[in-house]
Structures are given as structure tokens and as C-alpha cells.
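Reviewers of the previous submission asked for a worked example of the structure-prediction workflow described in the proposal, so we include one complete record here. The input consisted solely of the amino acid sequence. No template or homolog information was supplied to the procedure at any stage.
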Amino acid sequence: MKTLHFRGVDPITINKNSIAIVGSRRMTRYGREVVDKFVSDFVLNGTTTISGFMYGVDTEVHQKTVDYRGHTIAVFGCGLDVIYPPENEKLYKQIIESGGSVVSEYEDNAKPHLWKFPQRNKIVVNLASIGVLVIEAGENSGSLVTAKLAKKAGKKVWAVPGPINSSVSVGCNELIKSGDAQMATCVRDIIKIKTTEIQNSKIPDNLNTEEQKIFKLLQLEPLEIDEIAQKLGESVVEIGSTLSIMGIKGLVTESGGKFFICHKN
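From that input alone, the workflow returned the following C-alpha cells.
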């Protein structure tokens, strides 16, 4: 691997347990939901995510990882002084502030060019210790190029199946059908984490009775506030107040209307 320029932490210090996640720039609602499902569980299990900082799936992977208080590595196809796409300037700062890394093999002022992105994909693949997960990929897309690079490098490749009538699922479905990728419908298909390992994670000692009840529920699955209230037989107002306190303590976080246990990195 070429010498890498980086901002934030050294990517080599957080890539020992890492997964590259790539996909379409034309991400659908289905793709967004899939990213949320996988990233939340990867972060819960201490897995660093890696992607290419572009529109669509890349950006969603980085943003969700930050939201769930995990570590993510963003690999640029330009210099680190050139934020591309420019809409991701806030995300750039969030990745660094959250203990992640932004990386490039190019000099800091290098402009983005089409030929640089396939080169960037090699770094994405090489940094990933676990392998590559493809979420939504059109026919002949850049994500399929990344999958080929991973296979050539001896890395494992997984793909999430999608609707057969969706143009951005053609690539993923073909990867699975051809045997070039293993099908993944949940994180356990990739890192083989047992349900009990998630459910039996240690409950913090400083929780009151109400907080313990909520924590135990969220160990099983992310839930919306009304779902928590219904399961505990309590008012949404009371649950909301407790969740706010738990959020301040750094115990839970919210994304997409659902509450998750914060992974302690």
C-alpha cells in the first residue's frame, strides 16, 4: 500500500477489525434501511466501517457510523484539503471528531478526477481486515469493480440481495448468483456474532430501575420510543424523560426514530 496521508487518527490503529461497505450513489430507501441495519450492528460489535465518502451509500455508511458513535474511515479520491463532495464538509469534521480517519494517497491539494476513484477503491479494499460488503450496485458499477479488487486481493466479499425490479440491485444479485459474493442479510452472516453475545453485554452499574428496564430492551433490538413505552406499560412522556437522561450519560443514541445502545469504543 502506498504512503497514506490522513486526518484524525492513524487508520492503521482502527482497521484491525474493519469492514468496507460500498454501494450505489443512487441509493434508494431500501438501501438506506439496509445501511442502518448493518452499520448499527457493526458499531455495536466494535467493527470499524470503511467507505469512499461519495454520494449515496458511502456517505450514509459514514454518517450512520458517526451517529451510532462508532469509528469510520473515509478514503478520498482527492487531496485532504479538497472536500468532495462539498456537501460532506460537516461529515468530514464529524468523522475526525468521533475518533475516525479521513485518508488519501494524494497530496493535500490534489483535485478529484475520475481516474483517481478506482485507485481509491484499492485503498478501501486493502484497509478492510474482514472484507467487503456491497449494498446496492447497478450493472457495471464502481462497487462491482471494488468487489473484483477484493476477490483479487484474497478478501471475502458479501452482497445484500435486492428487489429484482430495481436497477441498483442488479449488481448485487448477480454477485450472489455467480458465486462471486456470499449473500448477507444480517451482520451475523459476516462476523458470526451470536445473539446471546449481544443480549448479555454488561449492564452498567449506575442505572436506576427504569434505566435498567430500557437498557435490557435495547439489548435485544433498537426500538422507537412508543414501542418501549408499550413494552414497559408506561407513558411515552416518562420514557422520553428517562431516554434523555440516558442519552446525556452516553448510554443510548437515537437515529431514524429508533434508540440504540451506545457501543463503548
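The longest helix spans residues 29-44. We consider this example representative of the routine output the project will generate in years two and three.
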